[in-house]
Amino acid sequence: MQAVYNEHVNGFQKALRQAEFLYREVSVTDCRFNVNLDVYDGRMLDVAEISRLKAEKEAVIIANEDTLVTTPAATMVDEGVGQVEVADEEADGVEEDAAGDEVDEVEE
C-alpha cells in the first residue's frame, strides 16, 4: 500500500515539474504533456534517458574516485626529493668549481 502511495506522489511531483517547466505554453490535455517525460538538468527528457544519464554520471564519479585512490602519493614525493637531490649535487659541483678557481688564483 505504501509503495503505491509513493509511486503516486512521485508521479504527481513529476507532473508538477513538467507543468513548471512548460509554464502556460502547454495544456495538460495537449499531446506534448507526456507522463513518460521528466525535467532533468533543465531539459525535458524521457524517464529512461534520465536513468541512463544518471548512471553514466555516477560511473564517471566512481571512476574519478578510483583514479584518486589508486594514484600513489609517494611517487609525487619521490619526484620532489629527486629534484632536490639533483639541485644539491649541482650546487656541490658549483662550489667545487669555485673552490678550484680560488686555488688556481693563489697558485698564479
UniProtKB/TrEMBL annotation:
Residues 88-108 are annotated as: Disordered. It comes from the Eukaryota. This is Uncharacterized protein. It comes from Vigna unguiculata. The lineage of its organism: Eukaryota, Viridiplantae, Streptophyta, Embryophyta, Tracheophyta.
